[in-house]
Amino acid sequence: MTVDQAATAETALAGPSAKRGETRVLGPIAVGLALLSAFLTFVVLADLTPISPTHYVVVSLLLANAATVLLLLIIIVREVWQVVQARRSGRAAARLHVRIVGLFSIIAAAPAILVAIVASVTLDRGLDRLFSTRTRAAIENSLIVAEAYLRDHAQIVRSDIMVMAFDIARTKPVFDQEPDKLTQFLTFQAAVRGLAAVIVIDKDLNVVSRADVKINLTFALPPRDALPRIADDNPQIVLLPDTNYVAAIIKLEKYQDQYLYVTRLLDPRVVPQLQATRASVTEYAALESRRIGVQVAFGLMYTVIALIVLLSAVWIGLNFANRLVAPIRRLIGAANAVSTGNLYVRVPVRPSEGDLGHLGETFNRMTQELRTQRDDIVRARDLIDSRRRFTEAVLAGASAGVIGVDGNGCVNILNRSAEKLIGRTEAEALGRPLTEVFPELVDIMAAAQSGARTQDQVTISRHGRERNLSVRVTSEQSSESDHGYVVTLDDITELVAAQRTSAWADVARRIAHEIKNPLTPIQLSAERLRRKYGKLIGSDDGVFAQCTDTIVRQVDDIRRMVDEFSRFARMPKPVIAADDVADTVRQSVFLMRVGNSEIDIDVEIAEDPMPARFDRRLLSQALTNIIKNATEAISAVPPGELGKGSIHVYAARDGDDVVIDVVDNGIGLPTENRSRLLEPYVTTREKGTGLGLAIVGRIIEDHGGSIELRDAADKIPGQRGAWVRVRFAAAGKAETAELEKQKTDNE
Asked: How confident is the model at residue 132 (pLDDT cuts 50, 70, 90)?
């Protein structure tokens, strides 16, 4: 992965989306406004501000709180919807997010609900106590006591004014003649009766006469609306507002539209208490009449405030859950990316995340270490893979067979040469015990495991062919007890055969030299004896003639054998030249067909030439020997077991090689020691010298080819007999062109 890809992966794990960013900005503002609204509502209702909690103020506060509650509810619903969507989509840490949100919601809701219940019960019981019978009786009794005090003073004033009005009416003539007497009377009565003011007024509130006391006349005058309510003989009690006086007014008899007005000073402490008591009673009655409304108003207001606090707590819980889950979610996402093999992913770390941020830093260090280790492992793997490919190339190109064996004795390596030698493919051999795949190595493997010899020679038989193998077992260098082994196989069949051939060639030269020299004198001596003494001995006795004939015949046989020894020992080197294999095969078959007319010898060869580089004379000799052996094999079949003998000769191209097959229906080849038939002086016939196939093998070997001895049934199913296959390299383009040129020149 490139640096750009790493940056892209880090961006994918980075912070919230634009919508969540908007919520993060809008959420604190909404919570702040809601809490501020709730606080203002509390201080206004608690009468801690100059603002009176009027109906308009309460409704305004209620609407403001409701608006903030609605805004908070929208924000929280949006947040919860995002959490639910994340859970449905299987987003990382979604379950943890839901649990944390639920936990914080419960923690926030439980106290709010509990407080709501307690507050409701407390408010209800408080109102019950406020509007109880005892409280109502206490307030009403206070008012009764205060009013009784006022009635007592009013009754005194009433009595005083009636007596004074009677005296003034009775002494009217005196007062008419001497008006000063009225003033003196009024002054005396005020002093005697403890009145604050004694005044005679007319219907227009004009003072006719008054007691000589110091009093604010404007203050002492009665209210104008009190005059019409006054009866002729019934005084009117008047309470002067905002004063500590009680007054009485009565109409004077015998006086035209004149009134007596008196005031009396009350205790200054009683009048305010009386007014407060009356106000309290009035307010108490009003509250009692609005009890249900007050309960509903307080309930709504508290509900709104509780909702504000609850939703604010829920939003804070959501925000905290988001802050808590976000780094965990990034860690899970990064872990998932690492599980897919992306070690370039990095978790964005914020200083405000605390321990979770430290966890992210630790994760980043871990991924960096993993990336470094993976790179090292990849480099080591590439190096190992390179070495493996080199080793496989070496093993594939090695002529020796190589078998790898693990500590359990099972095959784990098998190169191509080993496949050919043991006759099994790599797929068939891998994982199986070596003793099962290659039972001929049981003894040498046991010896190698016991620390004995590690090199030996074994003879194997595969596909009817025996091979001599040089086996070397090497132990792998390891401190473990169950270390493996490397088995090396070298095919020394041809080497052994070459050694034997060389030895027999030397023996043949010596035999030819030592035997051939006396053969001629022996033969000449036998013939001379026959000529000189044959007639003397007599014709009746045929023993002498028979003995001399036997000597001559056996000498001829020995000479023929010695000649074969000589030819084998002095095999000429092939003269390689471009030639046509098909033409050579046809001529060889023709010659053998003429000499063996009792046997059907047919040939299957394509009409097109088969160019190759070979010695025409030696190849013809080899084919002649093979066909001759086939005819002898047919002749060796017991009478009655075979109809007419047949020999089939095939020649064709097989890739880059030329293949010549000779198949007969004779007695066939022995199964045991079949490969040794190509060695000198190994034969299965009584009169055979064992040099025919040896010479053929020598010729084919000199041509760089190979010869195989098989059963005819492998070529023609159901047929008895032998199948000899000769294989050597075909000609290339240059040889083909040369052969065509020679053919053109000959024509």
From this structure: low
pLDDT at position 173 over 70: yes
pTM of the model: 0.41
Please state, in angstroms and rounded to a whole number, the distance separating the CA atoms of residues 582 and 585. 5
Report how far residue 610's alpha carbon sits from residue 398's, in angstroms, rounded to the nearest whole number. 31
Cα dihedral: 76, 82, 85, 90 (round 10): -120
**In terms of C-beta distances under 8 Å and separation of at least 24 residues, what long-range contacts does 123-128 make, across chains too?**
123/295, 123/298, 123/299, 123/302, 124/295, 127/291, 127/294, 127/295
Q: Could you report how far apart the first and last alpha carbons of the chain are, in Å?
A: 72
- pLDDT bin (cut points 50, 70, 90) of residue 134 is low
Q: What type of residue sits at position 421?
A: L
Strands (E), 46-196: none
Nearest CA to 405 out of 491, 480, 482 is that of: 482
Is residue 373 within 8 A of residue 379, CB to CB? The reply is no
- Contact between 228 and 209 under an 8 Å Cβ cutoff? The reply is no
Q: Going by DSSP bridges, is the β-strand pair 706-711/657-664 parallel, antiparallel, or unpaired?
A: unpaired
DSSP label at residue 433: B
What rounded mean pLDDT belongs to the chain?
76
Backbone CA torsion sign across 362, 363, 364, 369: positive
Using alpha carbons, list the distances in angstroms from residue 552 to 319, 521, 525, 531. Answer: 126, 11, 9, 13
Give the integer Cα–Cα distance in Å for 388 and 413.
12
Comparison of pLDDT for 455 and 233, the residue scoring more: 455
Q: Are 307 and 69 in contact (CB under 8 A)?
A: yes
Instruction: For residue range 18-45, list pLDDT tens digits in order.
Output: 445 555 667 677 777 777 777 777 777 6
Paired tokens of 309: 């606090």
Alpha carbon distances (Å) from 69 to 24, 102, 308, 672: 17, 20, 6, 105
- Mutual angle of helices 291-339 and 18-45, in 10-degree steps: 160
Whether the per-residue pLDDT at 16 is higher than 60: the answer is no
Reduced to 3 states (helix: H, G, I; strand: E, B; else coil), residue 724 is strand
- Cα–Cα dist 234/342, whole Å: 111
The amino acid sitting at 376 is: D
The helix or strand, by DSSP H or E, that contains position 127, with its residue range, turns out to be helix 94-130
Transcribe 340-409 into DSSP letters: TT-TT------GGGTHHHHHHHHHHHHHHHHHHHHHHHHHHHHHHHHHHHHHHHHHHH-SSEEEEE-TTS
Sequence-distant (6+) residues with CB within 8 A of 59 are none
Q: Which of 241-245, 356-360, 363-367, 489-493 has the lowest mean pLDDT?
A: 241-245
Q: Which of 227-241, 502-516, 543-557, 665-679 shows the lowest per-residue confidence on average (mean pLDDT)?
A: 502-516
Half-sphere exposure of 625 (CA within 13 A, CB side): 21
Query: Looking at the predicted structure, is the pLDDT value of residue 1 above 60?
Result: no
β-bridge pairing 646-654 and 600-605: parallel
Least reliable range by pLDDT among 79-93, 186-200, 610-624 = 79-93
pLDDT digits (tens, 9 = 90+) for 426-442: 788 888 888 888 888 78
pLDDT at position 451: 66
Beta partners for residue 661, in sequence order: 650, 725
